[in-house]
Amino acid sequence: SLKSRNALVTGSTSGIGLAIARTFAREGANVTINGFGDAAAIETERAAIEKEFGVKAFYSDADMTKPEAIRAMVKEAKERLGSLDILVNNAGIQHVSPIEDFPLEKWDQIIAINLSAAFHGIAAAIPGMKARHWGRIISTASAHSLVASPFKSAYVSAKHGIVGLTQTAALELATSGITVNCISPGYVWTPLVEKQIPDTMKARNLSRDEVINNVILAAQPTKQFVTADQVASLALYLCSDAAAQITGSNLVIDGGWTAA
Ligand code: NAD
Prior knowledge:
CATH architecture: 3-Layer(aba) Sandwich
Bound molecules: nicotinamide-adenine-dinucleotide
Distance between the termini: 36 Å
Order of helices and strands: EHEHEHEHEHEHHHE
Number of strands: 7
Shape: globular
Oligomer: single chain
Number of domains: 1
Number of helices: 8
Helix content: 40-55%
Strand order of the largest sheet: 3-2-1-4-5-6-7
CATH topology: Rossmann fold
């Protein structure tokens, strides 16, 4: 159970992050959700978490491209509830394009959201976790932290970087009661995947069905999408006492993708 734990999940207005926030709340944690989207829809989601699970839920609109906003979000989450015990760096975006055409601003944005945001969040969360001798830091990496795909240079670079950051932080915090790990999902059906289909159709000159079956699911030997709830269950496990000796790890949940 995560009763009396306080968690912050970045990029949790949708997809994997929302599943993680809801799973933590179901287990009794108070949660701060974060991310973009329709304000009314976000408020509905936040209120639903409180009502369904009987926990406190807050929302931060911090933009993960802005270091000061990230650090302020972590500080606020901690001050509101007295501690921040669990940080999940999950916000992420994708852009699909050959390197020679890859827009500079997209490269910078992906490195900022998918990599640097985790650095800022971790840096801000460490002092409070150290003081309480307990903490769980989890980042959503990707199968693309281990292998590449063409046309995803920024994403693959950022996700490989998350593994290095995770390992470094794990070593620095090894005797502090804080574990630092990342989770590497294969393809999960979320808006992030749906949105890259048109560009992948263009980059590879394929139809929508061909992209889903011959590109996306072709990578996954099980021929099935991973579900957001399955990723959330793994994140929950990392928060348990049973996982206290798992640190500096990259846990893969990818339907066999990186075994192939
Ligand atoms: P999603 O698009 O459903 O969710 C992304 C979340 O990040 C949303 O809440 C969005 O509002 C938020 N976000 C985007 N830019 C932001 C910014 N600048 N500041 C704050 N929040 C921002 O996508 P998802 O698939 O759930 O992705 C979540 C994470 O999982 C990402 O890090 C992604 O790389 C990773 N991942 C996804 C898959 C997959 O197949 N879907 C596979 C492996 C890893």
